[in-house]
Write a structure and sequence with these properties.
This protein has 200 residues and is mainly alpha-helical. It is built from 6 helices and no strands.
């Protein structure tokens, strides 16, 4: 879209999609919080809750995992256009297609996460996600150091990293707050998924 209609059209499309999604959530997604806390957003209770959460070693560990994998994603988002277009010679529309397939790989990772949790539990699932993100990241590094100029091997490493990212994010974001069900709007998760996570 950006190549044909300009960058403003691309941002307009994203804005409209965000508005449509927000309206759908407001219309169709019910409130899951059984009992609302009227003091939840007052400074005193809010700061006390934040202190409790931030001191929890499990919260810090899972937040670090989420932050590091997101860091890798932002490196891809910020620098990949210079590599794919400037170095490898892809057309802008082809680069957009590469990024779209990367998003599909991420989504596939989130679906795989559900099945892996049932079979391997939380930590086993995260280890498998870590293998994918490490393999993808180290693969891209090895290809760069080796002077690889073919697009497909780099794209495959890109996909592997994002697949692992798709496994990490549902696990780490939910596990980070899993020890504090009284502070969340969702009911405590099923024990079948090894919740709540033990403090690390």
């Amino acid at each position: 879209m950006a190549a044909g209609q300009g960058w403003r059209a691309a941002l307009t499309a994203v804005t409209l999609a965000g508005i449509a999604t927000g309206l759908w959530v407001w219309w169709r997604l019910p409130e899951t919080l059984a009992t609302k806390r009227p003091d939840a957003l007052r400074p005193g209770p809010w700061l006390a809750a934040m202190r409790t959460v931030s001191r929890h070693t499990g919260f810090r560990a899972w937040t670090a995992l989420s932050s590091f994998t997101y860091g890798g994603l932002f490196v891809l988002l910020a620098g990949s256009s210079f590599v794919y277009i400037g170095t490898l010679g892809l057309a802008p529309w082809a680069y957009g297609a590469v990024m779209a397939t990367g998003s599909l790989s991420y989504i596939a990772g989130t679906f795989a996460c559900r099945r892996l949790l049932l079979r391997h539990g939380l930590l086993g699932t995260v280890w498998r996600g870590a293998f994918a993100t490490a393999a993808g990241g180290l693969g891209m590094l090895a290809l760069a150091l080796g002077g690889q100029t073919a697009v497909l091997p780099i794209v495959v490493a890109h996909w592997i990293y994002l697949f692992g990212h798709g496994i990490h994010q549902p696990c780490s974001q939910t596990a980070a707050v899993g020890a504090f069900p009284q502070m969340a709007g969702w009911p405590p998760p099923s024990r079948a998924l090894c919740w709540p996570p033990r403090p690390l």
